[in-house]
Write a structure and sequence with these properties.
The chain has about 650 residues and is an alpha+beta fold. Helices cover about 65% and strands about 10% of the residues. Among the domains are: about 160 residues, Toxin ADP-ribosyltransferase, Chain A, domain 1, CATH 3.90.176.10; about 110 residues, Alpha Horseshoe (Serine Threonine Protein Phosphatase 5, Tetratricopeptide repeat), CATH 1.25.40.10. The strands form 2 sheets. A 6-stranded mixed β-sheet has the order 1-3-8-9-5-2. The chain has a 3-stranded antiparallel β-sheet with strand order 4-7-6.
């Protein structure tokens, strides 16, 4: 048995699970039949027992989970006889590092109904006197107490609960359409990938590929493609998706409707590679087929519009993105119930665009609508609720409301730790977000603690050269840079850069971002020539892979301007700052915080040049924007007020 956030039972040998799959299905079916008989006979609460020896470490973990849920790591054998269970627990543990444990389990069949399956199997056993009672896969229990009652045996009191079944049903409801059209093998892949168990998924489907039997070859290739996509092995994923597409289209008649999902998968890979135009090409092909085959207000058309919106959002074309997201939302609002689980995805994406545009209050409005729906239609500890809480945290973090941000990020982290395996990538992502808030608060040691926990998870559950590992290394580098430990920062930034250069295309924006970070450290070290070298390499990449007026291009220009300003080359600095400002004024809302940053930087150069009236003009424009778009106690407003004051002071206007 194990705490429920470690899931079940996929830590076992996947090949063995595959070989015994028919036996497992058969056994589950027999248990269900026996359970119906048990319900007829057992009118009162069923009490059963299980005796085991646990290692001290396992027992301590059990105590830590008192009051929480625990799920079985397979079928659970228990006994009606307390004495039999005590015998297995042992009056004294055989080894010093072992603890004898008696599980006392209460199961109220009148309340549980079909939320759990349990059967009396004593009459099938060669040891009828053991009075064996068997629980089906995934039985879930709440740990009420852990205490020492007998001389050398600790007692764990538990109550059977239907929460595990409810969570499974919510998962199936959320994926009902996909699961309905899929084979059991594909459903299994979906679950493994959602759990982040990519290596196990790969093992399972490579076994199936060698012996497909009645399974559809295209479906197996799609499943393997998903696995490689999750591992950031994009070339292999693309190869598998394209093979699957060829198979579907070469049949007679072609499986056109079915091929749409594969086109979307291909588009997703191009999006990961930041080949946004290629991604949009495939998303639009997918939409074209769906518009031809389906009613105008079909949810799948909404999904395609949503994907196209994502493509434009990645290109920095936020108005186009919003147009598609809102068309998608309009369809989902028309054809699905108001609290349908698909609705929050559209709301979240719209919120994401408003964050990118610096419209944080609008973003939070959409994120909170998304959370409200998810809280209504999903279990309280569902991962999607954690995702919504995380988004709200990001919104507050961008607003500079760091304590509010932490509150939401920590609630999100608590849910993901409860309902996902301990080494799931989503937990690593949550830890990174908590670390980011501490970093923005200036608590760099706390930030490092979370970043390093995140790194340990990504190194454990993902390939060594996965982009998420690079993200964690990058964040650690950022914390060391902010602490002034520049050599440590460079060490982590360069490790991150090495991974991104290995696993991503040479002109990927993430490589540009890493180069920028290395440049920033050299700038802080006073090595402005080295800094400029990295900033300019970063700029060349962004100019190659992103639109000319993309916000990331403005960021690179801004950094180059900063280096020239630090070198005392003020006219060159102004040239780059003004190019950056021009892009930001074109592609961002007029009151975006980044526009205020550009104005502030230009003001600083004019101060250095002794042109105080020009400096004040830019400082006051920057202050005006910041007062409009940021909370009244945001540090950047304080900086602007200080700069305006310095401007007047430099002019001799002390009052």
């Amino acid at each position: 048995m194990r705490p429920s956030n470690e899931m079940m039972p996929f830590d076992e040998d996947i090949e063995q699970l595959y070989l015994f799959r028919f036996f497992i299905v058969d056994l589950c079916s027999c248990l269900a039949q026996e359970y119906e008989k048990l319900k007829q006979r057992e009118k009162n609460v069923l009490r059963v027992y299980r005796g085991v020896n646990l290692s001290s470490e396992e027992f301590e973990k059990l105590k830590e989970n008192e009051g929480k849920l625990i799920s079985t790591n397979g079928f659970l054998s228990t006994s009606r006889s307390r004495e039999v269970a005590l015998h297995f627990a042992g009056e004294s543990a055989k080894h010093r590092d072992e603890v004898g444990v008696l599980f006392e389990i209460e199961c109220d069949l009148s309340e549980l109904h079909d939320a759990i399956t349990v059967a009396d199997i004593a009459h099938f056993s060669n040891f009828a006197d053991e009075e064996e009672v068997l629980f089906d896969l995934g039985a879930t229990f709440e740990i009420h107490s852990v205490h020492r009652r007998e001389s050398n045996v600790s007692v764990v009191e538990m109550v059977a609960t239907g929460i595990g079944r409810e969570t499974a049903q919510a998962y199936i409801a959320l994926n009902r359409k996909e699961l309905k059209e899929s084979s059991l093998a594909v459903m299994f892949d979906t679950l493994l990938c959602d759990m982040g168990q990519y290596d196990k998924s790969q093992t399972y489907f490579e076994t199936l590929l060698r012996n497909p039997g009645v399974e559809d070859l295209a479906h197996i290739q799609v499943s393997l493609g998903r696995t490689h996509e999750g591992k950031a092995e994009y070339a292999k994923a693309l190869e598998l998706y394209e093979c699957a597409y060829e198979i579907m289209m070469s049949t007679r008649p072609p499986r056109v409707k079915e091929s749409v999902s594969v086109l979307n998968n291909i588009a997703n890979v191009y999006a990961h590679k930041c080949e946004n135009d290629r991604a949009l090409e495939y998303y639009e092909r997918s939409l074209m087929i769906r518009e031809k085959c389906l009613p105008a207000d079909h949810p799948d058309i909404g999904a395609s519009l949503n994907n196209i919106g994502l493509g434009y959002s990645r290109k920095g074309e936020y108005d186009r993105a919003l147009e598609y997201y809102k068309r998608s939302l309009k369809i989902t609002e028309k054809c699905l119930p108001a609290d349908h689980p698909h609705m929050p995805s559209s709301l979240n994406n719209i919120g994401g665009v408003y964050v990118d545009e610096g419209k944080y209050d609008r973003a939070l409005e959409y994120y909170e609508r998304s959370l409200k729906i998810r809280e209504k239609c999903l279990p309280a500890d569902h991962p999607d609720i954690g995702a919504s809480l995380n988004n709200i945290g990001l919104g507050y973090s961008r607003k500079g409301e760091y304590d509010r941000a932490l509150e939401y990020h920590e609630r999100s982290l608590k849910i993901t730790q409860k309902c996902l395996p301990a080494d799931h990538p989503d937990i690593a992502s949550n830890l990174n977000n908590v670390g980011l808030v501490y970093s923005r608060k200036g608590e760099y040691d706390r930030a490092l603690e979370y970043y390093e926990r995140s790194l340990r998870i990504t190194q454990k559950c993902l390939p060594a050269d996965h982009p998420h590992t690079a993200d964690s290394l990058n964040n650690i580098g950022s914390a060391y840079s902010d602490k002034g430990e520049y050599d440590r920062a460079l060490e982590y930034y360069e490790r991150s850069l090495k991974i991104t250069q290995k696993c991503l295309p040479a002109d990927h924006p993430d490589i540009a971002s890493n180069l920028n970070n290395v440049g920033l450290v050299y700038s802080r070290k006073g090595e402005y020539g080295r800094a400029l070298e990295y900033y300019e390499r970063s700029l060349r990449i962004t100019q190659k892979c992103l639109p000319a007026d993309h916000p990331h291009t403005a960021d690179s220009l801004n950094n180059i301007g900063s280096a020239y300003s630090d070198k005392g080359e003020y006219d060159r600095a102004l040239e780059y700052y003004e190019r950056s400002l021009k892009i930001r004024e074109k592609c961002l809302p007029a009151d975006h915080p980044h526009t205020a940053d550009s104005l502030n930087n230009i003001g600083g150069v004019y101060v250095d040049k002794g042109e105080y009236n020009r400096a004040l003009e830019y400082y006051e424009r920057s202050l005006k924007i910041r007062e409009k778009c940021l909370p009244t106690d945001h540090p950047d407003i304080g900086t602007s007020l200080n700069n305006v004051g310095l401007g007047y002071s430099s002019k001799g206007e002390y009052d």
